[in-house]
Amino acid sequence: MIGPTASGKTALAIALAQALEQKTGQACEIVNADAYQMYRGMDIGTAKASAQEQAEVRHHLIDIIEPSESMSVARFQELARNAIAEIQSRGLRPILVGGSGLYARAAIDDITFPGTDESVRAAIEQRAEQIGEQALFEQLRLKDPVAAERMDGRNIRRTIRALEVIEITGRPFSASLPRYSYVIPSVQIGLDLDRCVLDERIDARTQAMRSAGFVEEAKALRGSMSVTAERALGYSQMMAVLDGNMNEDEAFADIAQKTKRLARKQMGWFGRDPRVHWLDAMSNDVLERAVDIVCDADAGAFEEQDAQADEYVQHHLGNIATRGEEG
Question: Cα–Cα distance between 182 and 108 in angstroms, integer?
Fold first, then answer.
């Protein structure tokens, strides 16, 4: 279950889990794929599923690390795949839910995350200083023309990373880029809605966060958040309020504006994937249609379609470079 922030993913996922259990007799459990709901204490700012919602359907990968810790997509991939396998081992159906596109894809798609080597990277950085970013990019083009064709030669950090991966792994950087190919058989349901309606929902949710005590939540977390956790949208604004650099009206207006921008970026990310079955979040029959899509997938209705989508994307669009995102 994917879609932009504030589109109603959590509510629909819970309703879908209950409806599928009633229709098929197979119970469901939800696996969180939001980059920041894994942090304990970061509840209001991440719009985390409430205790009541979590009681309705069991949730996994929520409140599993402290805000002082860091979470990487590679670490999440291992956690998510283990959670999915454990749920399936008990004969249950996992439902992956989140708006962090890279995290969702990392759980189910053919994506690898090569490690890093500080000495290798330092040597490449030194070479970049000596010969310049364009000459370094030409070196990448010679070693991996497929990757170079899909990269911006002005992005020196990406060039350095690509060359680092090539040297560490002995394989082209393009070999580690994500493919639209499932390693865990899945069906993806995406929620979409009119942008004006989504903006209204974001405004309402931002005000609800204010009323729920977002400032107080941030105050309790102050000084204990890792650099990764601090990237969660809204927390930097709350810290600015606490430091006296913003008033609350300014901070929450800024959160709403940046959340709307994030929602559009999320849709751009999700919209690249031709395997997603899009539903109108405001439709009266959205739950019924979601149930039908899952049951059709159970019957193998989309296997050929998914294979064709993978072939089309790889041939016409190429691989999309792995990158971080706000969540």
Answer: 6
The reported pLDDT for the residue numbered 114 is 86
Q: Pick from 10, 35, 49: which is nearest to 231 by CA?
A: 35
Provide DSSP, 218-286. Answer: HHHHTT---HHHHTSTTHHHHHHHHTTSS-HHHHHHHHHHHHHHHHHHHHHHHHT-TT-EEEETT-TTH
Degrees to nearest 5, angle at CA 96 with 39 and 325: 55
How high is the pLDDT of residue 309? 57
Using the structure block, give the residue that is written with the tokens 């969180």: 32
Encoded amino acid at 122, one letter:
A
Q: How far apart are CA 245 and CA 259, in angstroms?
A: 20
Q: How many beta carbons lie within 10 A of that of residue 90, not counting itself?
A: 8
- Contact of 269 with 109, CB cutoff 8 Å: no
Q: What is the pLDDT of residue 179?
A: 78
pLDDT of residue 115: 84
Which stretches of the chain drop beneath a pLDDT of 70? 304-327
pLDDT at 247: 98
Assigned token pair, 50? 């409430």
- Nearby residues of 173 by Cβ (< 8 Å), 6 or more positions away: 140, 144, 147, 161, 162, 163, 165, 166
The pLDDT of residue 322 is: 36
> Would you state the pLDDT for residue 316?
45
Closest CA to 46 of 205, 200, 197, 192: 205
